[in-house]
């Protein structure tokens, strides 16, 4: 009786595990950790925050806003008793990676955004200016400020993404061409 030649099940499983491990390492090295991917995650996080704030504004019958700086953003709530905007849950602004920036247009007008606020040395972890005024408003009637927000890499030819709203629809992340327009 002759024995059939071939691979055993164990040998096949070992090869499959090796191929899977190498494919996983290739994905990590090439796609997941890239600046373009990280920029997309940041833009989607911001779009998600705007969606949540818009829903909360209607449900809570409260006005919310978004304070945007060139490298950071922060959700604010309006307190009718004090007549002031204040950070939600006293959280500091969310900072983008140092290689990324934000550019904002409100109703077709480009705004000059301030650099990210410095931290107050007396109370670390909290923003220095506690009465910031938001540029983007999310109102309790379901409307929001018409805006166009660009999230981009600082390097020439880097990824550029856009979030835009006409004041009624929530923004979605869109990819822009890599050719920079004059600012």
Automatic annotation (TrEMBL):
By its UniProt entry, which SUPFAM superfamilies does this protein fall under?
A: Pili subunits (SSF54523)
Bilayer-crossing residues are 12-33
Leader sequence range is none
Cite the entry's keywords alphabetically.
Answer: Cell inner membrane, Cell membrane, Membrane, Methylation, Transmembrane, Transmembrane helix
Membrane topology, from the record: Single-pass membrane protein
Q: Which Gene3D superfamilies match?
A: minor pseudopilin epsh domain
Q: Where in the cell is it found?
A: Cell inner membrane
Pfam families, per database record: GspH (PF12019), N_methyl (PF07963)
Q: Where does the General secretion pathway GspH domain lie?
A: 42-166
**What residue spans carry the region label Disordered?**
113-134
The family assignment reads:
Belongs to the GSP H family.
What is the official name of this protein in its record? Answer: Type II secretion system protein H
Q: Which gene encodes it?
A: gspH
């Amino acid at each position: 009786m002759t024995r059939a030649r071939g691979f055993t099940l164990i040998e096949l499983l070992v090869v499959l595990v090796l191929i899977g491990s190498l494919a996983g390492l290739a994905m990590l090295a090439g796609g997941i950790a890239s600046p373009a991917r990280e920029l997309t995650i940041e833009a989607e996080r911001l779009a998600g925050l705007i969606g949540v704030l818009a829903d909360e504004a209607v449900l809570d019958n409260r006005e919310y806003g978004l304070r945007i700086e060139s490298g950071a953003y922060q959700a604010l709530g309006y307190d009718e008793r004090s007549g002031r905007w204040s950070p939600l849950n006293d959280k500091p602004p969310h900072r983008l990676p140092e290689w990324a920036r934000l550019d904002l247009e409100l109703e077709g007008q480009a705004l000059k955004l301030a650099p990210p606020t410095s931290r107050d040395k007396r109370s670390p972890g909290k923003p220095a200016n506690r009465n910031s005024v938001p540029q983007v408003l999310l109102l309790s009637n379901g409307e929001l400020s018409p805006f166009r927000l660009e999230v981009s890499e600082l390097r020439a030819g880097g990824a550029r993404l856009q979030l835009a709203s006409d004041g009624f629809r929530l923004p979605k992340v869109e990819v822009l061409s890599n050719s920079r327009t004059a600012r």
